[in-house]
Amino acid sequence: MATAAVIDFGSFSSLSGGRRVQAGLGPRIEPGEFEDSGTNHSSTEVGAIVGSSPALRAVLDQVRMVAPTGSTVLIGGETGTGKELIARAIHQHSARRHRPFVNMNCAAIPAELLESELFGHEKGAFTGAVAQRIGRFEQAHGGTLFLDEIGEMPLHLQTKLLRVLQEQEFERVGGNRTIQVDVRIVAATNQDLKKMVLENRFRADLYYRLAVFLLNVPPLRERREDIPLLASYFVQKHASRMGRKIEKIPMDALEALSNYDWPGNIRELQNVIERSVVLSMGPELEIPLPELPCKSARVVLLCSASNVSERSERARILQALQEANGMVGGPSGAAARLGLKRTTLQSRMRKYNIVRLFQ
């Protein structure tokens, strides 16, 4: 049997650290870097934007252009494309880099609490307000406030946000003292705000105030050249966290990853790689290709995993079942150990004729 082609990155430690990815059967791949040398990356890869595709480089050129200006920026793009990383890069390459970067997801906070989160409140302003609390604007004073999912902000708050953008002042909820701040706004959305304006679901004046500089982050399917770099980066990130030593990615798996359309973009790719690292017991990454949705004709053949991959997956399932004393579900069951849903594991067990061994 012929040896499978692999991408070897044994010497690779971190794309954000400037190391190179060495492909065993191809030319050396240079990661595209865009980060501040003074940034601390001890817990997260803030500012490390991985890739070298023309689409990504065009975005980074725009970031370099607008970052030092102090202008308001509106970032558009699908879910999972890395809009927050772009916002952080803008902050890190601006004169405000040494001041706070404060982020808030407008969709993650209940509408009735959003005003207090943004502007803060005084003691006794409402039931449960037992103490004074400063909001995100005050926290970001001198720095940058990143408002993610800005399209989810209620209309009545859009009016108040517009005032802060224009006047750089506001009052806390329940207070009458005007507070002045110096904050740069970077907003992001995965919605069509122009369409929302026409439908009277987003204020036109706020849209034009936010869209001083429009920046669109391309989906992963439009920057396929970056997928091998991203996959290698995520393998090393998660392998290091889990105490695994993974040095190779099979070329057929890498090709399947590169040809898939990734509707969930980088976030979906990261989840697939993390699950693969969990399932990999040796130095070669084991990607369960049958789990990769085969929506594209380019991926169909690659999604039918080789017999070698199936034998490897069957062995991992047996090992997990033995470690879990035959338990499939539950927090310590085999499904949890493998990072799979219980029903998915049961389906795999039937596929590999394991179901009779563990009832």
Instruction: Tell me the count of domains.
Output: 2
CATH architectural label of the largest domain? 3-Layer(aba) Sandwich
Strand order of the largest sheet: 3-4-7-2-8
- Rg measurement, Å: 24 Å
| Helix/strand order | EHEHEHHEHEEEHHEHEHHHHHH
Strand content: 5-15%
If you consult CATH, what is the topology of the largest domain? Rossmann fold
* Major sheet details: 5 strands, parallel
Q: Which CATH C-level class of the largest domain is it?
A: Alpha Beta
What sort of overall outline do the alpha carbons produce when their principal axes are compared? Answer: globular
Percentage of residues assigned to helices: 25-40%
- Total helices: the number is 14
The average pLDDT score comes to 80
Helix and strand topology:
Layout: E1 6-8, H1 54-66, E2 73-76, H2 83-92, E3 101-105, H3 111-119, H4 136-139, E4 144-148, H5 155-167, E5 169-171, E6 178-180, E7 184-189, H6 193-198, H7 204-210, E8 213-216, H8 227-242, E9 248-250, H9 251-259, H10 265-279, H11 297-303, H12 307-323, H13 334-338, H14 342-351
Parallel strand pairs: 2-7, 2-8, 3-4, 4-7
Antiparallel strand pairs: 1-9, 5-6
Helix pairs in contact: 5-7, 8-10, 9-11
